[in-house]
Amino acid sequence: MTVRAPPFVERSAGRSAERVAPWSWILLVPVISCAEERTVIHPPFRVEDWIPRDAVVSEDAPVAASSESEILPIDLATALQLADAHSIEVLLAREKVTESKADEGLTRSQYLPVLAPRFGFFRHEGETQSTEGDFLDVDKQNAFAGAGIEISANPAEAMFSSLAARRRTGSREFLLESVQRDMALRAATYYYDLVQAAGLSRLAEDAIAHAREVVSVQESLERQGRGLPVDVMRARAELAKAEGSLFQASEAARVASASLVEVLRLDPTIVLVPAEDELKILQFLSTEIPLPELIARARQGRPELHAAEEEIRALEEDERSARYSWAIPRVRLGTTLGGFGETFGSLDDQETYSAALQWGFTFGLSHALDRAESEKRRAELLCMRAQDRVAAEVVRAWERVKAAPQRIAAANRETEAAQATRDLADARHEAGAALMVETLDAEASLTRARTSLLFAIADHNRAQYELLHAVGGMVE
Hints:
Elements: H1 7-20, H2 28-35, E1 71-74, H3 76-86, H4 88-108, E2 114-129, E3 135-153, H5 155-223, H6 229-264, E4 271-274, H7 291-301, H8 303-324, E5 330-341, E6 348-358, H9 365-430, H10 436-471
Parallel strand pairs: 1-4
Antiparallel strand pairs: 2-3, 3-5, 5-6
Helix pairs in contact: 3-5, 4-5, 5-6, 5-8, 5-10, 7-9, 8-9, 9-10
């Protein structure tokens, strides 16, 4: 069985199509506007660009903990990936992008017509007054069933607000990338804090092993009558000192693990340990690149600067809206199609059409323009401040990267000399030809040298990531 619409609907639809057709082209503007795709003007953040080519990848990357204080290895690549995937800051920034895109869609919907289905029934019994002023006793009623379509928008205001919303969406996307880079830097920094603490633990263990050897040798010399009891006590004191250094290094490792666990949003009971056994020297950016070139690259590549520029462009659209929208009338177009009659069973077709232009002149127009201009100037000042901050970050990171090779070279020379000195002191001590204090001093010098080398390499790697972050990514 074929279901047909009531006759009044068919007649109304046919005549309405003929009458609406001359101005239906207006709807093409919003359709085209809403269908327009955004052009990607900046490459998105890629975690892979922040992972060294020779990075150690652990097969036991932490994802969850099932027991208290579970110890799990982690590598740099996993830390960077988890920071991007799990960080609350990154997730919040993504939600802001989603909200901004929704606001952009709502702004564009100003162009679209509003469809309003309507059903109504009216009945009156008793006295009423005619248009001539006479009072009449009248019983009357009517019913209506149909729908209306209306467009009401200020073309200038709608256009400028849509452009501003698009700019703000772009700004939020750049801010998302900025947050991703910030979290990658934090993850890399905390990871090398963890590696540094683990290195300090290994140095403390080596110092303990050496101190035990010294105690054993000194006790043997005392039994042979060639050593003094005070030297044995001194050796045992140095052993206890080395054991205390191990406890301190273990504490630093737990603190570094807790900081990294927080950034990666892992189970707080997990204790992370670095997967790599040896601290390797990273090299993302070279100090041979001139500093002015790095600063220029940072001003082009830092996403927060792009976000600030997009916000300025959005405020420029707001300023244009405040400057020109008042002069453009609001356009109101509407039509109502349906059936009208005494009851719903006796409806006949009814059509109404309306069109109007409406201006709105208020005494606050000049103040609105002043506000828009002030907001744009403030955004420009904030952008300038951000540019200065970015340049300062590049300079600081570049100076650290520049000084790191000299620190590492000096620490290597110190370590080699201290190692040779300790080997000689150990040989003399075992032969009974040297005082015990000579051996202890040589061991302390070697520990300091190794610690300096460890700190120099860790600082170098952190500085490399700081410079990578400061310039906005790799420099081709």
